Amino acid sequence: MNRVKNICSFMSNNIAVLIIVFSVIAFFYPKGFSWATNYTELFLGAAMFGMGLTIKAKDFRIVFTRPKELFAGCVLQYTVMPIAAFLLAKAFQLTPDLALGVILVGCCPGGTASNVITYVAGGDVPLSVGMTIVSTLLAPVCTPLLVYALAGSWVEVSIFAMMISVVKVVLVPVLTGILIYRIFPKQIDYIRDLLPLVSVAAIVMIISGIVGTNAEKIVTCGALVMLVVALHNGVGLLLGTGAAKILKMDERKVTAIGIEVGMQNSGLAISLATANFAANPFATLPGAIFSVWHNISGTIYAGIRNRRTIKRSQKSEEAAVEA
Predict the structure, then answer these.
(1) Which of 27, 62, 142, 195 has CA atoms 20 to 30 A from the CA of 21?
(2) Which tens digit of pLDDT belongs to each residue from 27-82?
(3) How far apart are CA 182 and CA 197, in angstroms?
């Protein structure tokens, strides 16, 4: 059992590497993975269900104990990334498909990967988990409205259809997972360390399927999308961090908010593009590339923040000794 737990932990901590490896394989052997796009909603639902199973009652207490930080994080989540996506789409004069894909990513809630990256970075993990939960629960309303407002000038957007999609692939699986944990807490706790494997496998299959299906498109416009995605993600990390500092939060909270704002649930963006914008096939591409990139950049960001935290601790200890 311990060996299985170690494997699951290794895969969770190295999800960026797994995504890159399988994406490369899917690029050169698309037939082996393109079938996965037919089950995008199922895979994302499985990932969200796994997230729901890990949520405990105490995780919701943060809503009442840290309302300021949670409110700030969610406001930044649903303003910085959507607006940045819109401005980047305009600045780079993206085609309607790619503009829609970038905006979809920007309008999605935070992803569960942000919780892992926050832990690695030495940030406030409970705050990160709380922001992910709240932004996810707000997604059925916030995401469709923002996509309608920002992407409406490029493509026709059905708010109601998108709301139904978000409820199906996010809200229902998460709430089901929470309910099952409430009914069978001991049984779920016994397999808790294995649950991240479900989300990791689901996300890897979603991205590999999109890469396999869009292999030719990646060749033609992959460099441009990569540039826009990197800028989008970087803006989120920097502005999220900067805003938290302006609000005079402590360093652990600054780290958590910076990561939460910059890392999106790009799997949801892919699912929404597949389910609601079949006439815009390129719209899935930004989400797939973002899924790869934000795990890499998030890990780099975590390393930088962690080193700063260690240096501050060392300086504080030295000052205490001198005093």
Answers:
(1) 195
(2) 888 888 888 888 878 887 887 787 778 777 676 676 667 788 888 999 999 999 99
(3) 21
Give the pTM. 0.82
* Alpha-carbon 22 to chain mean position: 18
Three-state SS string over the chain comes to CHHHHHHHHHHHHCHHHHHHHHHHHHHHCHHHCHHHHHHHHHHHHHHHHHHHHCCCHHHHHHHHHCHHHHHHHHHHHCCHHHHHHHHHHHHCCCCHHHHHHHHHHHCCCECCHHHHHHHHHCCCHHHHHHHHHHHHHHHHHHHHHHHHHHHCCCCCCCHHHHHHHHHHHHHHHHHHHHHHHHHCHHHHHHCHHHHHHHHHHHHHHHHHHHHHHCHHHHHHHHHHHHHHHHHHHHHHHHHHHHHHHHCCCCHHHHHHHHHHHHCECHHHHHHHHHHHCCCCHHHHHHHHHHHHHHHHHHHHHHHHHHHHHHHHHHHHHHHHHHC
CB 27: neighbour CB atoms within 10 A?
Answer: 18
- CA triple 26-27-29, angle to 5 deg: 60
Query: How long is the chain?
Result: 323
